[in-house]
Amino acid sequence: MNLFRFEMRKLWQQKKLIWLFVIVFLCIGGILFQNFSQQSTKSERAIEKIKPMKEEGDNTYKNLKELQRGDFFDDPFPQQLEHINGIGLAFFKWTSAIYNEEWNQIPTIEKDFLISLEAYENVGGEFWPLQGIEKEKAIQKNNWLIEHNLSYEDEAISISPALILKEVSGFLLGFLGLFILLLFFGTTITVEMENRTWLTLKTQPISKWKLILGKYFSLLIVVLLYLAMVIGVGLFLPLILGGSTLNLQYPQILTSVDSVAIISTFNYLARSIVLFSCAIVFTFSLILLLGQWVKSSVSALMLTGLIVLLGFFATDMNAPLQFALNPFQYFRFSHLLAGIPHNMDWLYPLGAILWSCLLVITAIVLPEKETGLFNSSEDKNPFKHGKTKKHRNPIWNIWMFEWRKIRRNGLLKQLYIILALIVVFGYFIISQQAQKKEEVYLVTLQEKVQENENMITYALQNIDSYQNERENAEKISDEFYSKFYSDQVEVWERIESYYIETLDKNISALTGYEVENWFPFHDYQLHLNQLYYDSKEFDPNMRTIGEEPTISEFTVDASIEEKKWLLEHKVQPVFSGEFIPTIYSNWGNRDKEKKEWEEENRKIDNSGLFILFLYFDQYIYFIPLLLFLFLLGAGFSSEKGKRATLQFLKTQPISEKKVYLGKGIQATVTALFSSVGLFAFVILIATIFNRFGDWHYPILHYDSKALVDSESYVGIKSFGQKGFHFVSLGVHLLESIALFLCILLFIIGLSIFLSLFFKSQLAVFATTSLIVVSGYIGSSQLLTESAHLSPFTYLNIAKIMNGEVSTLLNNPSINFQTGSLVLLAGALFLYVIGYLLLSGKTESKAKSRVMGQ
Q1: What are 535-573's pLDDT values in tens digits?
Q2: What is the dihedral of CA 289, 293, 294, 299, to 10 degrees?
Q3: 723, 703 in Cβ contact below 8 A?
Q4: Closest CA to 780 of 766, 770, 794
Q5: Residue 653 burial (CB < 10 Å; 0-12/13-18/19+)?
Q6: Alpha-carbon distances, residue 191 vs 12, 199, 217 (angstroms)
Q7: How far is CA 174 from CA 169, 179, 374, 768, in A?
Q8: What's the predicted TM-score (pTM) here?
Q9: Do the bridges between strand 533-534 and strand 537-538 make them parallel or antiparallel, or are there none, so unpaired?
Q10: Residue 242 is inside which H or E element, if any?
């Protein structure tokens, strides 16, 4: 118990808990502020949500009224018209309640709509915006809201305490929370070893198992304190500022393959807390074990992160590994929380306890290594066999000194090894996904041959049937029916012609694929894209052939132009899907269908260039960004602390400002060469195992409205004055790499600048992270017109390079060129300010000495 209290006092004195509270408070405060700022759009968003359903109801009503004016208004059309009137009345009340902000009335109105919809479908009606599992979700959620007397909430921008906490739990009780706790507290043993205090502890009459258990139990208390911070701030901050009451009964929808379940927000949060606790308990026990072997905080963090990352991806991609006693299953937060609870869920905490006990016992039983895992000996040979020379330029000397230090501690080599393992493992994961997508798409392509043949047969049968009906109508001189059946014959002849053409192109695509002739393959996909158009307008007749339209005209335009580009440049296809998912598609309430469609059309390829594209598009670049920051961004804080080597440097004939510049130059050069080498290695691995890739593969780039409206615009205009153009993959990657390097230099420069004011590396990295995150949120939410002048705007490389940020903020100045200049100028500014501050500090000390004399 005394040892445990000793550990807790150390944690308090290090002020890590204060930093932890500040991060939690700022994260929750930032989300609350963001949701507050969007409350004015709540009515608009609610109207937009019901718009597809309202439009479908209006269109159905018009069609039924047209039939009523003719001679075809037989059963069940009168009953359908009656119920569609009920649907229309419900939407009128619904819209009125939204505009009057009568949110408590909406569940009752929605209930009336669902009753009318059920009655409408019972008499043969179809209502495509709300079908299947989405309809079941709406019914169950509505029943829950009425049963618990709850009002309508826009969960995406809610300011109610329960939903704010639920939104916060998505990242503070997810990978971000794991990362924060691991960074702040996971190195509890390795820090002792680096500071040599571990040796002091071992000289005390305390057994090893007490030392390790004392540290481990202190980490468990930290987890409890962290959970208390998240829950406390997440509930009380909205209560104080939002004026809402606390109600944890708001429904959360969970789904499986074909079923839906509703649980309260309280139960959802309880599951989230348990799952996060399982993951962090296992992670702490793992790093506790690894820390005794590597004896380096950075090495322990990188190795733990690598093991968790590899275990997570292996589990996520292999269904047999997805069971409760697999510790890496705990990290599949979003998947597990979205799924329906099972009777065996109690195995998750049991498994976490068993794994933690096993790892902690192993750490106690196994003997410690005398040297770190990556160091064969504590004795180091001198550089160049001791024949190093001093350079005339002192900045060169200090740069070389910093470079030798980073080589000496071996962390750079460890970083390269871990990044190489991530790249190789990532390549095989992407290869597996690409191969699976290609196989699935080709099977689908083969199945469509039979489908097209069946549709041709079906069309011919309808043509014969309507021709016979027309002949019968002509015999009795019924002009109305004669014209009606003639129109039907014309429609089905058109359908037959379409499917004959589609079948021909389908077969040509399969034949071309086998001989690597990509022209018929792209031509087939272009044909499917153009199905949605007839003289550049949506063709309602053609749309009824297949599924109802759900994608925007912009998406269709972009997909058509993409195929034309592929045909022109003779590029090998990337699987799968015929369309490009864009930001303009509106799926209404059909979230499941949206995800399925986007997944179906998501492109994956294991060529060198495309894998590097995926690294940027899927935000994997943040992994090396963070690792390089921790390795190179400590600045002066690495020379402070208990082993204050900075005091030794001050005794040498070199000024602090030159040491500052030397650290900056060393970090800059190392970051640049390491990053370029990493990206080259990614391409090299994929090229060796597959191919280099297509330099001219098209990448969609959105153009902002301000740019589209300009007279000099040369891109492609789509419906609603939306514009776009395509950039070749090679150029896109070169600019993405350049922007990454600029971001890396800026963030490292910021971190080194902050090291002038903090003694602790943790404080430096925490402050850097807070500034970067706050700056990004502020730039995107507050500085919309001048966002291009903020370096934090450009952190999202994928959305900067495809023009999404520029388009959403309608600021054409947000682009690669401006971002590179702003980031480099920001980094240079920080180094200049730091240099001037140290110069002023040196002059002040000199004056003080003169005055003292």
Answers
A1: 333 333 333 333 444 678 888 889 999 999 999 998 998
A2: -20
A3: yes
A4: 794
A5: exposed
A6: 16, 12, 17
A7: 7, 9, 30, 21
A8: 0.78
A9: antiparallel
A10: helix 208-242
